[in-house]
Design brief:
The protein has 10 helices and no strands. It is an all-alpha fold and 271 residues long.
């Protein structure tokens, strides 16, 4: 049998194969960390695995001596709140821009090129402008996430709207539906699951913009903490924070995938 036709026989086998790269990475890290610590017990570049346990205990389960707060959870709540607000506004803005640009030619004539141009501007290049314009508070962080993700969501939704069968729009008009009714009854039900996919695909970029904004101007947040402790070369804190961000990103992505299956069970079933 050709190798392209072979599949893991059971879920357990599939799960075990999926774990192999992570196990190999941990083993590889442990080996190189042990080599460096043998030569220099005070080495901070590759701390031992036990250092990670101590750092997590200190950041997540021990109150800060200065504020009395559990820093990991304070940072997590702050970052997730910013991400949720920024992406919610991006999703709503991208949805309506995409629907209007994809459905109404007069709007698309001006709106579609404008959105395309916005999507070509590197968000990190306008970060100083955003801080100057909106200050160093929360608003600038939200605007950076929105500026970096909303145009891409809008372009994706616009394309999805244009791909709708024209027969549906013609049939709705023959039944005397106006533009608003066509949007609400024909377009939105088919576009909403695609909006969830667009938001999922934009989450990686949103995390990048969030971490960058927190690193430059913030007093709490996952990005702020990483860049705060880097001056001390505290890799025992930085690496757990990076892994925690990865876990959060995976959890949010999984939640969106489950949301699609719950609210739109028909989506993705046709081929």
């Amino acid at each position: 049998m050709r190798i392209i036709n072979r599949r893991p026989a059971t879920r357990l086998a599939n799960f075990s194969i999926a774990l192999l790269p992570f196990v190999a990475l941990i083993v590889l890290y442990a080996v190189f960390s042990d080599i460096r610590l043998t030569d220099n017990p005070d080495d901070k570049l590759l701390p031992g695995l036990s250092s990670f346990v101590d750092a997590v205990q200190r950041m997540a389960f021990t109150p800060s001596k200065r504020t009395g707060e559990f820093l990991l959870w304070v940072d997590t709540f702050a970052s997730l709140q910013r991400l949720a607000i920024g992406m919610s506004i991006s999703a709503l803005l991208g949805l309506w821009l995409g629907v209007l640009n994809g459905l109404i030619p007069w709007v698309a004539a001006g709106g579609s090129p404008f959105v395309r141009v916005l999507s070509m501007i590197p968000p990190m290049a306008v970060l100083p402008i955003l801080f100057i314009t909106f200050g160093l508070g929360e608003l600038s962080k939200y605007v950076l996430i929105i500026f970096g993700t909303a145009p891409f969501i809008a372009r994706d939704i616009e394309q999805r709207v244009r791909e709708l069968p024209p027969e549906q729009l013609i049939k709705a008009q023959t039944l005397d539906a106006n533009t608003w009714q066509i949007i609400v009854r024909v377009v939105l039900p088919q576009v909403l699951p695609r909006l969830v996919d667009a938001v999922r695909l934009s989450l990686g970029a949103a995390w990048l913009f969030l971490i960058a904004a927190e690193a430059i101007a913030s007093t709490e947040g996952l990005g702020y903490r990483i860049f705060l402790v880097r001056r001390y070369l505290a890799m025992d804190v930085i690496l757990p924070y990076v892994m925690w961000i990865t876990v959060l990103a995976f959890a949010v992505d999984y939640l969106f995938r489950r949301m699609t299956s719950w609210f739109f069970p028909w989506y993705g079933t046709s081929r």
